[in-house]
Write a structure and sequence with these properties.
- The chain is an alpha/beta fold.
- It folds into three domains: about 5-125 and about 260-325 and about 400-430, P-loop containing nucleotide triphosphate hydrolases (Rossmann fold); about 125-245, Domain 2, N(10)-formyltetrahydrofolate synthetase; about 445-525, Formyltetrahydrofolate synthetase, domain 3 (Roll), CATH 3.10.410.10.
- It contains 19 helices and 23 strands.
- Helix 7 (about 125-145) packs across helix 8 (about 200-205).
- The radius of gyration is 23 Å and the shape is globular.
Length: about 550
């Protein structure tokens, strides 16, 4: 059966029953139909957060074949619940771009899914729409201020980097001219669209601790400069209050359920190479308040999503993870070992062994944060026993716990060994989470620490634009912000063609963007795409709805 068929076969429980399982009274949730609800921020309990066991699911460097972090996260959560542990999985919300593009949805797969699958993959509870509206409201206010004769701040349009956003892959919108049509239609200038997941509003929502913090961060968004070189922020445009109003419901986490009827919280969806790549701080602390174990994930490989999770999110919210589950697949390791995409289903122990240095580097990176790693082998039907044994022997040599997770086919039952490894690692209490760097370090030192220690770079080069941006950051007194490096997910380096564990390479920082509202700096390396395009044959061609309203083609 397809993922959609498996999801449809599941008899969902009313969301009120899922809330009751968490000890939350039905009167304390805001229902969005029968199977979705929003949770009030008042349920967050810091004393319980401090006692919770936070588990991060990450992965080796991703490949076009996909590694299945979401599926592993959901399956692990099911396994923990089957072991009698009170556990909640916390995930990001899917973006419509990939749903209708090439990647598909992001609700897991097989018997490790969160439901209702169609709702979550489509409009869900409207969070993305609210973020999009808040972002574009600020864009409209900016252009209105440039146009205004009585309320003008003297903004120099050439210095404005704030674009508009839309939750759809549409390459034609990457670079556009606005303000055409005469003097009553605005001031002509070049701008463009990003996908909503890349919006700074998304990053702000996911790092805010509460509504006042959200509004403060919105006001701190850096817009550009006046003609007299004075910096302008969103608060100078008096935009933060109206933007916060549009986000008043979006800030609340969403409660849904897994196939096995366990609670799941889904909230926020920032890119992992532009923002911190995990669900919101509010969603994570909400889950930690309501359970004993919290399973969450970070986008892309450990070098991107997980590094940002640790150095930005955990430092910002004072979270202390206990275990990192590093997802690996046989086919991905063979790809990093030189096998072509067409050959990944063919047993090839030699290619697998050649790909192990990628896994090794990610394990080393986890240990730099002084957190215990556990390897999860995400099982596929094409995996051979000999190949699985190679990874098990490798893990044994490294002194790392490892388990095969057959969660796509078996759900929680297929993750019992993995869940037990996680429980054992927590009980051994060997983790002592330590960030990689101090936010107070100089900006270049923070960038170079990540590039050399996490990516394995020899050193970092800066273009003249990046050097000018460093001076701008100093002039704005923003040097104490953490670093969110934008880099390809396909390689540990900034070159997507360098697979495995590249060495002796140089990271080149082209420019450094300022995300003062989010509270981090974004060094841009390589060619980062914020507005993807659709493939020649997008997934939308397969998606349809019958006369009686039944959706088909979602995956």
């Amino acid at each position: 059966m397809t993922d959609l068929q498996i999801a449809r076969k599941t008899i969902l429980k009313p969301i009120s029953q899922i809330a009751e399982k968490l000890g939350v009274d039905t009167d304390n949730i805001e229902m969005y139909g029968k199977y979705k609800a929003k949770l009030p921020l008042s349920l967050i309990n810091q004393s319980q957060v401090d006692k919770n066991h936070l588990i991060l699911v990450s992965a080796i460097s991703p490949t076009p074949a996909g590694e299945g972090k979401t599926t592993i996260s959901i399956g692990l959560n099911e396994g923990l619940n089957q072991l009698g542990k009170n556990s909640i999985v916390v995930l990001r919300e899917p973006s419509l771009g990939p749903v209708f593009g090439i990647k598909g949805g992001a609700t897991g797969g097989g018997y490790a899914q969160v439901l209702p699958m169609e709702d979550i993959n489509l409009h869900f509870t409207g969070d993305f729409a609210a973020i999009e509206k808040a972002h574009n409201l600020l864009a409209a206010i900016i252009d209105n201020n440039i146009q205004s004769k009585t309320n003008s701040l003297g903004l120099d349009a050439r210095t404005i980097s704030w674009k508009r956003v839309i939750d759809m892959n549409d390459r034609a919108l990457r670079r556009i001219i606005v303000g055409l049509g005469g003097t009553t239609s605005g001031v002509p200038r070049e701008t463009g669209f990003d996908i909503t997941a890349a919006s700074e509003i998304m990053a702000i929502l996911c790092l805010a601790k509460d509504l006042p913090d959200l509004k403060k961060r919105l006001g701190n968004i850096f817009i550009g400069y006046t003609f007299t070189k004075q910096p302008i922020f969103a608060k100078d445009l008096k935009a933060q209050g109206a933007m916060a109003v549009l986000l008043k419901d979006a800030i609340k986490p969403n409660l849904v359920q897994t196939i096995e009827g366990n609670p799941a919280i889904i909230h926020g969806g920032p890119f992992a190479n532009i923002a911190q790549g995990t669900n919101s701080v509010i969603a994570t602390t909400m889950a930690m308040s309501l359970a004993d174990y919290t399973v969450t994930e970070a986008g892309f490989g450990f070098d991107l999503g997980a590094e940002k999770f640790f150095d930005i999110k955990c430092q910002s919210a004072n979270l202390k993870p206990k275990v990192v589950v590093l997802t690996a697949t046989i086919r991905a390791l063979k790809y990093h070992g030189g096998a072509s995409l067409k050959e990944l289903t063919v047993p090839n122990v030699e290619a697998l062994k050649n790909g192990l240095p990628n896994l090794e580097k990610h394990l080393e990176n986890i240990k730099q944060f002084k957190v215990t790693p556990v390897i999860a082998i995400n099982k596929f039907t094409t995996d051979s026993k000999a190949e699985i044994e190679v990874i098990k022997q490798f893990a044994q040599q490294k002194g790392v716990k490892v388990a095969v997770a057959d969660v796509w086919a078996k759900g929680g039952k297929g993750a019992l060994k993995l869940a037990q490894c996680v429980v054992d690692a927590v009980s051994e209490n060997q983790s002592n989470f330590t960030p990689l760097y101090d936010w107070a370090m100089p900006v270049k030192e923070k960038i170079e620490t990540i590039a050399t220690k996490i990516y394995g770079a020899e050193h970092v080069d800066y273009t003249s634009k990046a050097k000018a941006d460093l001076q701008k950051i100093a002039d704005l007194n923003l040097e104490n912000l953490p670093i969110c490096i934008a880099k390809t997910q396909k390689s540990l380096s900034d070159n997507p063609l360098l697979l495995g564990r590249p060495k002796d390479f140089i990271i080149t920082v082209r420019e450094i963007e300022i995300a003062a509202g989010s509270g981090f700096l974004i060094p841009i390396t390589g060619d980062i795409m914020r507005m993807p395009g659709l493939p020649a044959h997008p997934a939308s061609e397969l998606i349809d709805i019958s006369d009686d309203g039944e959706i088909s083609g979602l995956f």
